[in-house]
Amino acid sequence: MRLIVQACILGLLTGGVYALMASGLTLAFGIMRVINVAQGAMIILGAYLSYSAFTVLHIDPFLSVLLITPVVFALGVGVQLAFLRPLRREDRQELSLLVTWAIALGIEGVLSILYTTTYRATIPSYANSSWRVAGYQVSEVRVFAFGLSIAILAVLYLVLSRTRFGRAVRATVQNPTSAALLGIDANRISAFGFGISVATAAAAGAVYGIVFSFNPGSHYDLISRLLTIIVLGGMGSLGGAVIAALFMGMAEAVLATTVSPTWSSFAFFVVLIAILVVRPQGLFGVRERGAL
Amino acid sequence: MSRIRPAGLARAAVVFGGLGAFPFLLPANWIVNMAVFTLMFAGLATAWNLLGGYSGYLSLGHVAFFGAGAYAVAIMFQHGGIGAGYTPFFVLPLVGIGAGVVALPIAWVAFRTRASTFAIVTITFLFVVQQLAFNLHSLTNGSQGIGMAVPPFPAATYERPFYFAMLAIFALAVFGCWYVRGSKLGLMLFAIRDDEDRARGVGVQTNPAKLITFALSVGLTAMIGGVWAYYLTFIYPQFAIDPLITIGAVLMVYLGGKGTLWGPALGAGILVPAQQYLAYRLGASELYLVGYATVFLVVMLVLPRGIIPSVADRVAGFRGQGRGGVLAEDGIDVSASQGAGS
């Protein structure tokens, strides 16, 4: 029992980081109907940028988030303009899967050239310290990572619910045609939306690099989990993605302690199959349009 | 029943006659080796097109079945069931049928979703199978991989049996696609691709059609995986269930023309030799990945509909100038109906 509670704490903290990663993915789907298979590669890119900022410039990985996110935001806007916008509207959904997969391969290739394929990790001085709360070990880094993820998610929520831009995004998600008729510039929303979605991925990557070791190929591992999370939460549903991420983080950790770490990623697949059989549209998905 | 048209028959005769004579005309080992891989991808792409091109369901997890076929042959080999020499080729039909049967429940779950979600579920499935290959240690040796004895074929013509095995499966895939296109199943698939809800509304049995097509497509894929494993005589999980294999085959389908009969093979004929050349020139796999990504992006942006539909459009448009070319309006359908009897 103790072990399971410990696993739940660990899983919840990891789940918070997954939530940040998955929220960008589901947001991009909501706005543009684009599934960004490169989201995992963007996370790993963020992890490497933060690793370099730490080892070369000695910037704390949590501070480096401020540096990395604008860079990756610009990259995201560039990718959207150069590769996603030219796709024809009627087959954008399927072609975007392949195009973003190619972008993931490109990022993986560039990172392998620059950093080789050795596993790395960003290790700040506090990497191994932890608190004891009611007899349970709580790693400091994971708490900070969780806190940062929740903070960024809160900002994202405020932007979407309180600003003019956010209202335009939500309108586009709910009904792109009406939104365009009301004078919302869909191209601008898509470009900024995609930029934000990969910037959150890079921010998550910076903290991912402290908690886990990674190499350029690690993005496959991430994307398979994140895709499961957004299907589970309901495609395009931000709240669904967050809840699904927290749940999956815990399920994975519990399976790792009770069964075996090598089988822990199966938690994702078992839950995915169960959900598809019972409720194919996901926990919070609606059949027609995404809800934000 | 599909109609056999003289032009189509002649085209098939030229292609398969040429491919049959190829290893005798150019017997150098490295050339036949490249041809084996070209035929392998031509087969994979044609099999993928049966589902992805005709029904519009984008599966990105086909390599899971490729790997399953590879492991099936390797495991049978290891446990002494199938002997050496030519006998492993004879179990391939069993591997294909087995994969098709195993695929049915998986497909049933995956087909509860549509469009992008279906693609996501198939990607996830790919990683499930890869993980299984790592974790089921007693069966697959995990990350150490499985080796098979090198078959006792004469060195000068060592590649030839594998070449003809790949050719046979490729021919089977093309025949299957041609037959399906002209059959009721093909019409059902085209209806599903165009508008699944309306197809269901008018009484098309969409679920059986999708399940049968999925099983056919992955059965062929698994057979190709079996030949591949025996050709390399050594497989391990990251290599046998490499997402690049599926994504490569899909790229070839898009390059040649999705939903056409010969497009996928044409795409393979162009890309595989180019790929091998790139791998040979660039050597390091990192640069190779970047090169691959670049080719992919260029194809997607410049020729998203593929060579055959684009050329067919031009030809139809050119001819249509004299006869009020309405046909050229709807690219994919033109090529589909034109290629139907080929």
Gross morphology of chain B: globular
What is the C-alpha radius of gyration of chain B, as a whole number of Å?
A: 20 Å
Tell me how many strands of chain A there are. 2
Summarize model confidence as the mean pLDDT of chain A. Answer: 86
What does this structure look like?
The complex is a heterodimer of chains A (292) and B (342). By secondary structure, chain A is mainly α. Chain A has eleven helices and two strands; from the N terminus they run ααααββααααααα. Helix content of chain A is 72%, strand content 3%. In chain A, α1 crosses α9 (219-233) and α10 crosses α11 (266-278). The two termini of chain A are 37 Å apart. With 342 residues, chain B is mostly helical. In chain B, 77% of the residues lie in helices and 1% in strands. Chain B has helices at 6-25, 29-55, 62-78, 87-90, 92-110, 115-135, 137-140, 160-182, 184-201, 206-232, 237-240, 243-256, 263-282, 285-302, 307-323, 331-339, and strands at 146-147, 234-235. In chain B, strands 1-2 form a two-stranded antiparallel sheet. Chain B is globular. The interface between A and B is large, with 44 and 42 residues.
List the main descriptive attributes of the protein structure presented here.
heterodimer, A: 292 residues, mainly alpha, two-stranded antiparallel sheet, 11 helices, 2 strands, 72% helix, globular, disordered C terminus, B: 342 residues, 16 helices, 77% helix, 1% strand
Summary of the model, kept short:
The complex is a heterodimer of chains A (292) and B (342). With 292 residues, chain A is mainly alpha-helical.
